[in-house]
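P.,

For your records, the input lines for the assembly:
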Amino acid sequence: MPEFRQNMVSKEWVIIATERAKRPDQFLQKKEGKKALPHYRKDCPFCPGNESMTPPSLFSIEKNGAWSLRVVPNKFAALQNHLTTERKHEGRFLKADGFGIAEVVIESPLHNPTLATMDLEEVRNTVFAYQERYSVLSKTGRIDLVTIFRNYGERAGTSLEHPHSQIIATPIVPPHVRNPLYQSQLACDTFGDCIYCGMMEEERRQQVRVVDETDYFLALCPFASRSPFETRIYPKTHRSSFVNLSGEELADFATVLQNTLRRLHVGLNDPDYNYIIRSAPTEDSNVKYHHWYAVIVPKLTTPAGFEIGTGIYINTTLPEQCAEFLRGVKIG
Amino acid sequence: MPEFRQNMVSKEWVIIATERAKRPDQFLQKKEGKKALPHYRKDCPFCPGNESMTPPSLFSIEKNGAWSLRVVPNKFAALQNHLTTERKHEGRFLKADGFGIAEVVIESPLHNPTLATMDLEEVRNTVFAYQERYSVLSKTGRIDLVTIFRNYGERAGTSLEHPHSQIIATPIVPPHVRNPLYQSQLACDTFGDCIYCGMMEEERRQQVRVVDETDYFLALCPFASRSPFETRIYPKTHRSSFVNLSGEELADFATVLQNTLRRLHVGLNDPDYNYIIRSAPTEDSNVKYHHWYAVIVPKLTTPAGFEIGTGIYINTTLPEQCAEFLRGVKIG
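Structure tokens returned:
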């Protein structure tokens, strides 16, 4: 029997279409899908020796006299940092200059690893760089939201092979972000505590959607997963912003992030994915009602007219089965 | 200079990234992208002679003793019509049986035309069937929203070649639909009239984004287009629901819909697309604040982590240039 499930925070619904449910292993990606990459490419702007192909580093981590991670301004940024934030009317329409800050985190000097396969130290460097830049960007005064994300593979919208993440800081909190914040605030006004903390308590009690648990984090396939193998990583201690993680928590996040990506990599044979870190707006970095998390969306299905029209995603897998599958993947 | 633009109703923002703007003709699809289809396939469930491969017709249009259009229940429906609409708690989570009605409109007995290339009479039959079924479904009492949509091509999420549309009726109005309704209601409470009527007045004054205008409809590329060549068709007379169109208006809608799809088909060489008819919830079919419209989204780009995370779409084309390009396409 198919089933509607509601996202507790956004109040959006999904349809878990069990009648045409696919078993998790039916999403296994084809071996021939991805070609092996070299560890270096002469024409790659992110490979060592080609530093002049990018703007100068904003931040870097060195090892044995060479860089092992660099953060650089995005040369092809959709937003620019020298503009105003003023809203302007054009007749009845509202617009603003495209002020914003866009950066790229080059995660490794090597061209061919991925977060799932690189050394844990490089993943730690990556999340450390996220926090460093988040901290700097959120203090500029004109930035309301810092979004950290990673597009992996062509189906996830990237054409650059070299391992990298992106950070985009905007002077706008859009409704897509604000509406769930309003809902979690309302829940907090009603029940007196964080709706995410309550959800995690429930998930730890039910256990059926939990993928992994570490000292500081819980990885799970959400009750109202929009697509197969959607996985979220929540800090177990209440934190509204990614910027507030301690060093120990950050190191643990690197471990659980890599292990979760490795489960997907091994279990589904290297699928494309997007992940996003959903942190509070910069001025709400210490609030009771928001709880930051990372969401990983493997690109295994195509949203179509019904999803675009209603926001109701049809998911042909049971989140409980996906979680069970991921728990069972041997990641060595 | 890049620019933020706001959708007047949903209040969501887009970034028009003019620095890396592409010219409209750079979205021309490759000729070899689509293979020519036969007009009949023995194994196609929608081709004549194979009627037993689908459930019996709910509605059909005959011509010369054979069917020229059929509406049938969706055999692989994500929702089922014999279930309850009761909401149930599972711990803190909320769910409901997957009650709903899913139908398929088989638009032609031929396997290989598309809405852009078929006879106008078939397009008229199609939109007439939409209205017929919309009317029946909205009167069942348990249906709150009727969504009519069409997925064309693999990138738009369909695998069936035979020309068809879909209708899904749900017992739920999701936030994705409700939030913009609430915004347009608020605008109506504030200014006393329909925000869409005002927007159209502005578009007709500015003219730069208008693609086509007929007796009853205006086709345009929206000010805050989320992706290249997004095109919307609005009735010029205020109507909150698609069900309220007169026969004359419906015939005119068939013409403007086909002409718009033909502009995309000829101008961009047959791109994949989704379209959706956004009509009011069934209980709001005669309200001042909502104005139904059709939105056509050609699948030319891939939303990535930033779009998933923020709902802010980065569009590398100017809607004004897309409109100018589409206006200039010769459609015979």
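Two observations worth noting. The first strand of chain A starts at residue 3 and ends at 6. The two ends of chain A are 37 Å apart (CA to CA).

Regards
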